[in-house]
Amino acid sequence: MGSDTSPEILFDALPAIADNLPEKVSFTLFATKEILADRPQHPLFTFIPVEEVVAMDEDPLTAIRKKKNSSISIAMKYLKEGKISALISGGNTGALIASAKLTLPMLPGIKRAALLALLPTERKPIAVLDVGANISFKTEHLIQFALMGIAYQKSRGIANPKVGLLNIGPEAIKGTPILREVYQKLIELNKEESIFLGNIEGKAVFRGDLDVLVTDGFTGNIFLKTAEGIAAFISKELEQIEEGGEKLKEILTTLKRHLDYSEYPGAILCGVNGIVIKCHGDFSPQALNNSIRGTIRLLEHDFLEKIKIQLATLFF
Amino acid sequence: MGSDTSPEILFDALPAIADNLPEKVSFTLFATKEILADRPQHPLFTFIPVEEVVAMDEDPLTAIRKKKNSSISIAMKYLKEGKISALISGGNTGALIASAKLTLPMLPGIKRAALLALLPTERKPIAVLDVGANISFKTEHLIQFALMGIAYQKSRGIANPKVGLLNIGPEAIKGTPILREVYQKLIELNKEESIFLGNIEGKAVFRGDLDVLVTDGFTGNIFLKTAEGIAAFISKELEQIEEGGEKLKEILTTLKRHLDYSEYPGAILCGVNGIVIKCHGDFSPQALNNSIRGTIRLLEHDFLEKIKIQLATLFF
User: Fold this and answer.
1) What span, in angstroms and rounded, lies between the C-alpha atoms of B152 and B213?
2) Which of A197, B54, B270, B304 could pair covalently with B148 via S-S, beta carbons 3.0-4.6 A apart?
3) Pairwise CB contact (< 8 Å): A232 & B204
């Protein structure tokens, strides 16, 4: 509920998605009675009727405090109690984060949760965090984001993740005073092996030399949405191309999929003790499918346990 | 001098560029004696030997204060004295800005100079400022950037430029406290006609509904370089495409040029009383050519006078 895509569209798409998953996965669906009315039963679906919805334009904290019976609040309670293994939402981002922070314990050593998005580059996907959870931040928060990014990439099988700090130039003196401080702190990670490769500019990120890009929630959100925007812009221009053989069509389809951010499973809320996935507010059935498959991968790889072990190694 | 591209490459390219310009334009070239030695004379070139160069990695303010005989300092003095009509540089951005601010008067009503870059979108180019001159900023500076952006687009012939504020969501409450304040102040521009269209996210910018995008120098620089980075990434992927007919080749060439930021004339330093153009540090002869042609257009359209008139109208 509460996303820009109508719940009906997502409901209609879900049976086909569920039936085509490699394994049987059960779904618990939190929606208002009106939406649930006349929905056909499905052996893998449990419907939980809720009384309220947090809208996109509501103030997150106020909404979460007031609307105890909203879909997001009740779903988060289910997650905390272990009744569901992971929570996917396309609703109000701030409300999702506020609800997670109020309901779930933080991971040991982490003071702020961050949204992590995996982005395509020329070589390998890069984990970018924070892409929107924290507008205000301190040095220690960005260090913790770096550690969570490292832990996430290790859980994806990357043995020695390389970290960069998003900045306006490669030199240590570049950027705001807080970024200069973060730079000096991150250098300390390089005692035994080279982990922090320094400041990196937006244009160099897509070369794919890094595994983790550290940034604050404001800058990271601008970065992510700019990348999405120009990718969509170019995709549209490519749609003009109608000529060419089968091979060409194939390349263009691959390229467009590669650039289509709805192909990626959504952002992971890192730092809380639970798997919470934030999808785009305007997510398509295809994006929902990718999000579900991505979430299943996280569960199969025991992501949360792995990230806890990694954080323990890094912190202590 | 001082750019990442060697001065020899630029020197070698300049005669052909100068000979092919639509009108005769004379060039004053500021370079060290070593670089000028053995350079063939050209009827349109004047060589000014300098003793020092500001390097890319030097602290801007220190360098400008110490190196009074650097190419940038001397060229800026020429600009102030009217010996040259415009100054193009691919060197240290901070030093160029510091030198301009120390040498040239500010335009009436403007307290901070900003770098303005013109970017391609689906519909029409958008003027983005600031893309890197100010890391710290106050509300009033962003309002002045908006006014300069409007003035610039009016000087390009856009009758009613539309302005957006780069932010992480469309709602007035989004972003940092300072952005919320800027939003409220920009709304005041809409007394007689709709000028400020509100907050805009990075992904919506490229749809091309706006003429001016207002942002601070840090965020704007991240925005610009991210756009450049992903455009370069996609261009590389497109290079794989070898099949297809003439029509296809043509579309791809147009698209690649459209996405190639070296096709754009460089960023304009707005707010100082002089035409100062900042090119990429790694600018190619092609980019130099575009930069020169773009600068000539600014001169032909009497850009500086027009922007002064616009600012006077807007301020008083």
Assistant:
1) 12
2) B270
3) no
Where do we find the tokens 């999405």? A228
- Tell me which chain B residue has its CA closest to the CA of residue A136: B176
DSSP A134-178: -SS--HHHHHHHHHHHHHHHHHTT-SS--EEEE-SSSSTT-S-HH
B45: part of which helix (H) or strand (E)? strand B45-50
- Cβ of A227 within 8 Å of Cβ of B225? The answer is no
Q: For A262, which DSSP code? A: G
Cα gap B267→B256, rounded to integer Å: 20
Preferred mutation among A115, A122, A126, A203 to probe B, highest tally of B CBs within 10 A:
A203
Bridge partners of residue B270, in order along the sequence: B114
Higher pLDDT, B19 or A233: B19
Cβ contact (<8 Å) for B251 and A236?
no
Helix B71-80 with B93-103: angle, nearest 10 deg: 40
Nearest to A230 among B222, B231, B252 (CB): B231
pLDDT per residue rounded down to tens, chain B (316 residues): 888 878 888 889 999 999 999 888 999 999 999 999 988 899 999 999 999 999 988 889 999 999 999 999 999 999 999 999 999 999 999 999 999 999 999 999 899 999 999 988 888 999 999 999 999 999 999 999 999 999 899 888 899 999 999 999 998 989 999 999 999 999 998 988 899 999 999 989 999 999 999 999 999 999 999 988 888 887 777 776 665 566 666 766 776 666 665 566 789 999 999 999 998 777 788 889 989 998 998 898 888 998 888 888 776 5
Interface of B with A in 233-252 (CB under 8 A): 233-234, 236-238, 240-241, 243-245, 247-248, 251-252
Q: Any CB–CB contact under 8 A between A62 and chain B? A: no
ipTM of the complex: 0.86
**How many inter-chain contacts (A to B, CB under 8 Å) are there?**
145
Q: Report the gap between the CA of A149 and the closest CA in chain B (Å).
A: 20
Residue B219 contacts A where some CB pair is shorter than 8 Å: yes
Predicted pLDDT at A237? 73
Element (H, E) at B88: strand B86-89
Q: Quick one: tokens of A10?
A: 């997502």
Task: Indicate whether A7 pLDDT > 80.
Answer: yes
Comparing A248 with B88, the larger pLDDT belongs to B88
Give the residue from B234, B218, B229 showing the smallest Cα distance to A204. B229
> In this predicted structure, what is the pLDDT of residue B284?
84
Q: What is the 8-class DSSP label of residue A128?
A: E
C-alpha Rg value of chain B to the nearest Å: 20
Cα–Cα dist B293/B20, whole Å: 10
d(CA B212, CA B147): 9
Residue B157 φ/ψ region, left for φ over 0, alpha for ψ in the -120 to 50 degree band, beta for the rest: left
Q: What was the pLDDT predicted at A283?
A: 78
- B117-121 contacts at long range (C-beta below 8 A, 24 or more positions apart): B117/B224, B117/B264, B117/B266, B117/B267, B117/B268, B118/B264, B118/B265, B119/B205, B119/B224, B119/B227, B119/B264, B120/B258, B120/B259, B120/B264, B121/A233, B121/B205, B121/B206, B121/B207, B121/B208
